[in-house]
Amino acid sequence: MACISAAVRRLPVSVCSWTSVSLRALGQHRAATAAVARSHVGTGRRWCSATTPTRGRVGLLSCVEEEVSLEQQLVQDLPEVTGFTATATGCLATLEREHDGERVKVEVDAHNAVEVLADELVQDEEVEEEPFFVPAFTITITNHVGSRLQVECSFDEHGQYSERGKEWENMTINSVSVMAPDCDSPDSVYTITAENLSADIYDSLMEYLQTRGIDQKFAHDIFQYYRVFEHRCYLQYGLKALQNFLNST
């Protein structure tokens, strides 16, 4: 059964693009969103509203139910990713499209994300330092003979690879590997890390992905898609799973 850790709460975020202006807007939006549960927040921790906490299952269940109610108010419809068909199974979202006989598949796992803090993106005394997650994702391109090119990507808020040239929305390539049609053990395949790619190959690979729909628009769309998807996973497989467990005890 799909599951997701609920150890750290991540309030959903919204960005228009990875620019300095939008990063400031991101921090301001997060502060406004957090106000939905402002009465339940204190010194970085959220407490249930009971003035006299009850020990044991009943007390925990009460707090979880209250959190579920609050988070339910923030649920949004999953946005479209332009040019791709999206499906979700548990905590794994899959985006697919066809390109000149090739199959382009992008997989985004709600477990596989990079944590950043709001203060790393915007310096504003009015914005609380609060963690949120940006997606890491796997692109698999299968050609007509069945060979697969797999590219691991993520968003780098610090511009780690800015010296390499062309980027879209700070989307970066982390690694590249190629699998033969008969490969049934991806873990045994040799992987080239981004640090070992020349600048020319790195930039050309970015352009190669762009012609297959992995471009600036995609980077924007997948970021928007992920923030809604991750929040749904947190609610469904984190809070509600805990609620169901306590109710069945």
TrEMBL record:
Any one Pfam family match given in the protein's UniProt record, by short name: MAM33
InterPro entries in UniProt: MAM33, MAM33_sf
GO cellular component entries: mitochondrial matrix
One biological process term in Gene Ontology: cytosolic ribosome assembly
Gene3D superfamilies, per database record: Mitochondrial glycoprotein
Similarity annotation: Belongs to the MAM33 family.
Protein's name in the database: Complement component 1 Q subcomponent-binding protein, mitochondrial
Organism the protein comes from: Geodia barretti
Highest classification ranks of the organism: Eukaryota, Metazoa, Porifera, Demospongiae, Heteroscleromorpha
